[in-house]
Amino acid sequence: MKSYTDGLTGLNNMAFLYDYYEEYLKQNENNCYLIAIDFAKLKYINDNFGHAIGDLCLKTFANLIQKYFVKSLLIRRSGDEFVIMTSKSTIEIEELISKINNDIAKLHDTNSIPVLFQFNCGIKICEASIEESLYKADITMYDAKDNGFYYSYYNDEIYSKAKDNEDFIANIDRIIKEESYNYDCHNLYNKNNDKTNLRMITVTDKNSKRLYNQAQYELIKNSSRIKRIDLFNIKSILEILREENDSNTISFIPVDYKTIIAVEYDFIEMFKNYLIENNINVKNICLNINFMSTSEDIKKVDVKIKELKELGIKICIDNFDPYKNTYIYNIMRVFDVDYIKFYPNSISNFNENPREKLILFNIIDTFVSLGTTPIFHGINDKELIKEIKDICFNCLVTNARL
Q1: Of 402, 396, 401, 390, the residue nearest 197 (C-alpha)
Q2: Per the confidence metrics, is the pTM higher than 0.85?
Q3: Bigger pLDDT: 329 or 341?
Q4: According to the model, what pLDDT value does residue 402 have?
Q5: Residues near 114 by beta carbon (within 8 Å), at least 6 away in sequence
Q6: Contact (CB, 8 A) for 141 and 119
């Protein structure tokens, strides 16, 4: 006999929703909403407080939606995902979401639950197709999560963005499968516009387009895709360097910090073996570590950087943002970082007024004092670069015309 009950929360399961969706829709004259719900950071709660506390949060949430969303279909979908099908109005839905959040805060304040948890909702008016309704509610929930909202309502813009994201992921998967990459080299120039023996290597697709931008990185950063891209290309680049046999050039090889700290393999040992296999001298290598976006796991990177430095490998912090990547300061308190790379978006905020510019210049000066060489990539503001060169006796640019 088919089971309709979730064992942990006592709510109905997805089998129930599939069997009763059409009936509930008809009973309410096609005037219903589907709400897709996902917890924020349940994994963090499980890892830091234990699975028993994570389960308590899930059961607490189930009790609250039973309390407030009466005469609705209440579903635990899987893990920390829930679905509500309700005939309540949007005003009522918003009020009930607010009440649930208030109750969670009260339960935490009275120590009834040991951790304050949050959730995100995607709200979509029900269509005849349950699959279509679930899909649109899901992408709306992710929109709420991405923008830090408790809830979002479905619209055509969200749908278009989701389709673009799906196309991007399909394209990345194709590139990974076909191993269809190009490698572009950018020479680095000193403050006098003299070409140095340093070069940045960037990985692109076969049309010399960047593999991903900041927003696209967020889509794939927690999957295996970036690790697979990095590991394949590190090996390929080292093979190219072996063929070039140029002992005078230092090459910056891109790698994401998540690739370095991965637990499913020993990156340091793997990288060391690649160097030995290709007879590459560590003095000709600088790992260009991407910190485009960071999370709690960044704290694991210290040990790995220490091991890399002990091997004699130079380190460049890529995508440094003085506002966002504050953990980089902790790394630099402990280790000598050889280079740090600035992009236009990471310093644009500092160029808006004289006081902010002064802060930027002091940050740059501090790096130089610590023995770290700043690199300015893709910055076309000649006046800003001139000012930086005037106060920075040791900096590099990727555009000799500046």
Answers
A1: 396
A2: no
A3: 341
A4: 41
A5: 49, 53, 56, 108
A6: no
